[in-house]
Amino acid sequence: MIDNISWLAIYPEIVLLGMACVIALVDLAVTSARRTSTYVLTLMTLAVVAVLQGIYASSGNTFYGFGNMIVSDAMGNWLKCFAAVALMVTLVYGRPYAADRDMLRGGELFTLSMFSLLGMFIMIGGNNFLVIYLGLELLTLSSYALVALRREDAVATEAAMKYFVLGAMASGFLLYGLSMVYGATGSLDVGEVFKAVNSGQIRHQVLVFGLVFIVAGLAFKLGAVPFHMWIPDVYEGAPTVVTLLVAGAPKLAAFAMIMRLLVDGLLPLAIDWQQMLAVLAIGSLLVGNLAAIAQTNLKRMLAYSTISQMGFVLLGLLSGVVSGNVDAATVQAAYSASMFYVVTYVLTTLAAFGVILLLARSGFESDKIADMAGLNQRSPLYAGILAVCLFSMAGIPPLVGFYAKLAVLQALVASGETAYIALAVFAVIMSLIGAFYYLRVVKVMYFDAPVQTAAIQAPLDVRVVLTLNGALLFVLGLLPGGLMALCSEAILRSLAS
Amino acid sequence: MGVLSLAIWTPIAFGVLLLALGRDEHAGAVRWLALVGALAGLAATVPLMAGFVPGTADMQFVEKAPWIETFRIFYHLGVDGISFWFVPLTAFITVIVVIASWESITSRVNQYMSAFLILSGLMIGVFSALDGMLFYVFFEGTLIPMYLIIGIWGGPRKIYAAFKFFLYTLLGSLLMLIALLYLYNEAGGSFDIAAWHALPLSASAQTMLFFAFFAAFAVKVPMWPVHTWLPDVHVEAPTGGSAVLAAIMLKLGAYGFLRFSLPIAPDASREWAWLMIAISLIAVIYVGLVAMVQKDMKKLVAYSSVAHMGFVTLGFFVFNDLGVSGGIAQMIAHGFVSAGMFLAIGVLYDRVHSREIADYGGVVNTMPNFAAFALLFTMANCGLPGTAGFVGEWMVILAAVKSNFWIGMAAATALIWGAAYSLWMFKRVYLGAPGNANVRALLDIGRREFLVLALLAVAILAMGLYPQPVTDVTDASVARLLQHVALSKLN
Q1: Could you give the CA distance from residue B156 to residue A201 in angstroms, rounded to a whole number?
Q2: Has this prediction a pTM greater than 0.90?
Q3: What is the ipTM of this complex?
Q4: Given an 8 Å threshold on Cβ–Cβ distance, is A439 in contact with B141?
Q5: CA-based nearest distance B276→chain A, Å
Q6: A397: Cβ–Cβ under 8 A, 6 or more apart, which residues?
Q7: Which site in A58, A334, A405, B447 is 20 to 30 Å from B160, CA atoms measured?
């Protein structure tokens, strides 16, 4: 059963797992507060993994391993590659912050984040309900521990508790839903489930009953209303570096999980889960955008902004199948729109939190909107990067966030369904409201006088990566075609198999 | 790289360079580099003016390259008689603004100059885009630099004004975005504006599209009753911002009517022409009256801009050669005249730091040279024959009379309102004995200010005395546009 191809499919995962253990051991011998050797070793591992995944992805081949339990396809491999890069960037931004707060002691930050990445990889590459679930649990358990990394910090501990309790409940939902579908179809294999559901032999009621729980579990992981309660608290309460660990790469994995479960497995039920996603999307856009206006904490505002952005991702996902007809071109356009959205969202979030992390010093979190006052006078470069992020999230051309929104709106309008076009108009009005609170931060940075006057200091690696990140956002705004084509191609190849 | 690309990207490249290199410590060098950038931008339009062939309605200097292939979006540029003059006009006004802001801006000079240079490139992009999505990207992209210009260098209520400007215009454009996507799908996956012109559409679809475009363009023009953002923004914006806003940005909206609304939805345009004419006349008459009672000079000129733009939209919707050409002539003339008016106010503001009419009086006694320019701009603003302001207004009134005597009659009253508010302001600010100690202490304009005002004055007189180059260029394109609009697209 276990052939060479199987080992090949999980080769990067094996490297990641092995190195995570090695790094945990190596760190025992490291005594420096900044943990340079552990840090370099982690980055090198992640770079190797990212390159491996990139090679797999660009070959475009799809193959299955371990008796169809694992799939290696273009979409998954690109997402894994992006996730590894996102984690690298996060660690670069976060190390000075973590070192100032004595969070590097014991090297748990590196080891746990590598295990969380391993969890993401398994989620993304899973082709079996249980494998996907195991990946999810590995990711979330590592994240709970990461949020609680500063044991003496009351807010962080509270956030970790909330995250854990709600997360465990959501996992329970998901598992329950999966077991219902297993009971009805008799298989845990995504492909087999698809065949069974498509045959029409199975009682619709049972499937939909399971589906409700699955969608609820997914919505929790994605942070869609009404399962969003944990997001603002965790974003605000967690140390900023951990916030970014939770807010960045895992969204890529959550997208992949939705694709595996709902599209690869339960596409014949699209007409049912689309309605659910529509409700989630409307709620997310409404609550996310309106609640963000009232925030004074930048991390909390970005939390609500994430909720609204996920609403857009859901809009893309739900526009794939029009009134029950599965048309290859429509499906590809809609899901690649969502994938493009998630990838650009992660890229933007990295840069935005990168600036927050850069401005934080020991004893000063720099997470209030007011802390950004006059940033343009202190450092035009970093103010410029954050402004690009904010305008991009607001969807103002010529920034990359605009094309993401455009692709999703186009998928909705192309359906020709009045209800979908109405959703598009709604989304557009909500993004107008959204523009207000993003602009407010720009206003604080550019129009207000500085309050903080301390010189901005950052190590060379942070400055270089952050500048590159900002430049990439800007270039993608002018030339988004390449990444868009990549997403489109990846979805096409993955769905074809 | 094509001629149009050069005109777009030269100022943007200089703007980026300024952002990267500029520091307030060497503000002098920054200003000179900005001037070089603006002049290079203007020079880049010279081959355009030399090579443009009048007498044909076809697109010229066309460039087409794939941009976002997934959505078949092209980097597709070209100008015809309708859009041609706005390219050099934009580059020219940018030069003027850079020189005019030489001394009045002292903080973050590089960002200020770079915002104007980038804005200039984006606006030229709007006028030359032939791909719907490219147009939208340029159209919306202009919001970011303008928002920053108003918010950073504006007056006391700059934040309110910056937000009002951004959100107001964004609301309109988002509805247009949906319309663009609708057209893209109707046309079988094409953002080509020319293909949209030929696309048959049902009456209800045309009506929806017409109003979606109307939302975007009417706010930008601005037409009554969505003009309320303009006075607030003008009052708070720095002088250069006001000048560019009035001279070029308002034209983006009016240009949109000609490029999108009329040819894409001709039946709806004809059906709703009465509404457009009615609100244009309200802008001309009512807003003209509103202008008369303003106490703030900038607000007065802002309302007068709304009234003048009313002429433009009136000319478009009477559907004859004279009207549309007159509207375009009025747009160009207003570009010079409003820039002159706002820069003149800027000259006074730099000295006295007040825009209230009541704080002045008898300026002519202490600033005779300046008052002469101000008089010329004022006369042009009320449409005196021999100035640029006359050409467009006269053509539009004539066209309106041709279509319906009473519309023409109503429009013609604007000459009275325009003269009333312009001349009354001139009298209160410039004539009489010096009103107070501030005025008595005024120094006349220096060489730099003289140069700026003289350039505009020459442009205004040249266009007023010899408007033929404008109408020669527009004629063929306008004729084809009207032919196209006259044909029904109903399917």
Answers
A1: 71
A2: yes
A3: 0.89
A4: no
A5: 25
A6: A403, A477, B136, B137, B140, B141
A7: A405
